[in-house]
Every structure is written in C-alpha cells, then in structure tokens.
Amino acid sequence: MPLTHPPTPLPSLEPVSAADARRQLREQIARLERELSDAQAERSRHDISPLVRTRTRSHGARLLSLGQLEEIRDALVDARSEIGDASAEIEARRLLLDAMRENPRAFKGRKLTSRDLGEPGCHVYKVAPVLGVVGRFTGWWRVKVSSGCPLARRRPGRRCPPGRGGPPRRALSAGGSRRSGPSSGCASPRRRP
Amino acid sequence: MVEEDPRPRLGWIDPLVADEHPSLALLWLELPVRWMRRSPRWMRDRLATLSGRVDGAAALELRRQDIPAAWRVFYRHVGIDPDEDQTPIEAAYHARLRWGGFRSRGMPRDVLTTALVETGVALWAVDADRTAGELGVRLSKPGELLGAGETEAPAGRLVIADEHRALAPLGGEPPAELAVAKGSTRAIVYGLQFTGIPSMHVHEAFWTASELLGPPVAADAAVDR
C-alpha cells in the first residue's frame, strides 16, 4: 500500500559520551543504594546483617566500565524490589494475624511464626481450641502464643570438668516440656564400681 | 619534617582517576608518633566512653546516616560490595557489637579508631620513614607490589601511592611492613574525602588524631606500656 504521508523525521538526539553515561549510572547507583539502606533499616529493626545481598562481587577498588556499572545498578534494582516484595508479604501476614485474633474460628489450626512476621525471637502464633477437645466441640478457638526459643541441649559425650558435679536430673526439653534425664549441661563422669 | 600547626595536605590524584571521580580527594598529615603495644589509660577510657555511645540501635541506623551512607555509595562506585567488604565505620560498629566494646589495640591504632567513631571519617597511618615524597591516588601497574613487596596489587586497582611505589589499596589497611611499629617516630596519617563527606568532618578527624598523638605521653602511659 503506497504511503500517503512522508515519514515523520525522528528528533535529533544529543550524543551521550561514555563518561556522561558512567556519571549518570553512578548517580543512579547512589540513589538506589540510599533507597536500599532506608528499606533495610525500616524492614529489619533487629538485625544488622543485610536482608538481601546484591549479586555483585568485590575485586578491590578500581575504575568501572559502563557494563560493570550497569551490572551494579541492575543488582541494586533487583535487591530493592526483593526487599519490597518481602515487605509486602510480611505486611500481608501481619494483617492475617490481626484477622486470626479477630475471628479465630475462621482460621482453625493456622500457624504463623515470628520469622514470618519479620520479628525477632521464636514465637509461634497458632489458632488452637481452648481446653482441647472441649473447645473443638464447642467451637471455642483462640490464638495461642508459644513461650519462646528452645533451650540449649546437651551435646552427646560432653563431660563436666572435675568438681562441677552432674547436671540436673530433670530439665526442660527443647519443646518446653519436662522429661527425665539430662537435657543441658555436661554429663556426669562415669564412676567405677 | 613535623609541622608546628598541623593541617592536612591534599595529595595528588592521577588524572585518569580524577576524570572518573572528580570529588575524590586524599588528605594526609605527618605527625609525631610513639608506638605502644598497650594504650595509656586515658586512651582506653576514651574508647570505653565511645563504646557506651554505640549500641545496637545506632548500628541499625548507621546506614541511613550521611557519612556512612556516602561510604557505601563510594564503595559501590569503585566496585566494592559494602555488604561483602564492610566500610571502615560499619566494620568498627560491628566489631563493637561483637566484642562488647571497642577493643584497645595499642597506639596509634586506638587514635585512628577514636577519630573514625567520633567523625565517621576513616584514617590510616603508615611509618613516615618508609615512604618517599607526597602521597596520592593512582591505578596499580601490572605486577606491582604493595609496600615493601610482600603483597601484590592486581593491575588496575586504585591504590594509595607515594612517589615511588604503591603503599596500600584504596579504602584498605596498609601492609604490615609499612605500619607504625616499635621505633617509629613519625607517621603519615591519611584519609579520603568524596561526595557526602563534609570538609569539617575530615578536618575534625585529623584534628582529633593530632591532638591524641601530639601531646606528650602521660605519666601513667609509661607505666602501662
């Protein structure tokens, strides 16, 4: 089909030198790094280790090419979006916990951990029946919060130094329930008959 | 020659480096120094006071502060991942949290730690008798060795150099053979400035270093050595 109108000429673009392009990339990297730091500080209020590591490798201070700067910029963009996605998921889980507290019967058996909520510690929020079978039959449900992190357990084969004596005969197990036998500390030295 | 009223001097920057990082500056200052395996009590007390100021909350907020953030950006700009190789101030804060305080490592290292924590500006020191001429920043040459020749710098790395040889990687510790040691009388203290680090903080860091290194050694220091 013949053209009725002549093609519109493209606007002339100013040529960007490689040095200008690198400068612009460095500005983008600076902005992204600050955004990442803000997101990290807001998202993780209890851990100084980075939530997301960029997929870049250190090789010592050097002058970077355009491609290397682009690679760093892209890695920062990925890290930023990864933190954003994780934050959105955590926010959704916090809303779910609120809903579980409001109406436990609608979330029977549902479990959330403090890790799911982006919080420190080892709490588990679980919708459980009150008084076991009674609550199950009467429809009386509530959100039960576990007590915390498990205790340290005894390493097999570890012995007490001389004069320290043996461990308590009964101690808390990792799950928090009492059971017989040593669960922490060091084992008693064997006595000869 | 040690100056009466010490003011940091600007080091030279290789034109190739200056084109890419126009805001980068190297400042250095020659100071009298006395190496001590164990710092005097007043120095250890000052570190203890600083340890009390830095807690977990401060470490969590560190990345959002201007100067530590500027360090992270600069590290990215020169190809160092600050999460892999920590910036000097982040490394100091993490060590503080790990050890429960800023550990005293003798003089003049404690002085540099104090200046770093109080201002956010990292300073390094080398023995002035083992350097020649003015300091600057340039790219390392193929096969070039750092300092007295025990550590090799890969070609094309940014290094602190004197007029004859590369001394230390940019942003890194100088090799042990150049460090201030027993018998050293003069040290060259140097630091970096770039976008986001105000001159006032840099000068304060050098002033802190010269104040702590400059005064005559206190009486209890001789006992503590």
Kindly name the structural category of chain B.
alpha+beta
Largest interface, per-chain counts? A-B, 30 and 37 residues
| Approximate strand percentage of chain A | 5-15%
Provide the β-strand percentage band of chain B.
15-25%
Largest sheet strand order of chain B? 1-3-10-4
- Number of distinct helices of chain A: 3
Structural class of chain A: alpha+beta
Radius of gyration of chain B (CA) equals 17 Å
Strand order of the largest sheet of chain A: 1-2-3
Distance between the termini of chain B: 27 Å
* Count of extended strands of chain B: 10
Report the helical percentage of chain A. Answer: 25-40%
The low-pLDDT segments of chain B are 215-225
Q: What's the rounded overall pLDDT mean of chain A?
A: 76
Task: Provide the low-confidence segments of chain A as ranges.
Answer: 165-185
Total number of β-strand segments of chain A? Answer: 5
Write down the overall geometry of chain A: elongated
Computed over alpha carbons, the radius of gyration of chain A is 30 Å
What does this structure look like?
The complex is a heterodimer of chains A (193) and B (225). With 193 residues, chain A is an alpha+beta fold. Chain A is built from three helices and five strands, in the order H-H-E-E-H-E-E-E. Chain A has a three-stranded antiparallel beta sheet. The model of chain A is unreliable at 165-185 (pLDDT under 50). A four-stranded antiparallel beta sheet of chain B has the order 1-3-10-4. In chain B, strands 2-5-8-9 form a four-stranded mixed beta sheet. A two-stranded antiparallel ribbon of chain B has the order 6-7. In chain B, helix 2 packs parallel to helix 6 and helix 6 packs antiparallel against helix 7. The two termini of chain B are 27 Å apart. Classes of the chains: A alpha+beta (193), B alpha+beta (225). The A-B interface holds A 19, 22, 26, 29-30, 33-34, 37-38, 40-41, 44-46, 48, 50, 53-54, 56-64, 68, 72, 76 and B 16-17, 19-20, 56, 59-64, 69, 72-73, 76-81, 83-85, 93-94, 97, 139, 153-154, 156-158, 169-172, 195. Chain B: This is B3/B4 tRNA-binding domain-containing protein. Chain A: Residues 1-12 have a biased composition (Pro residues).
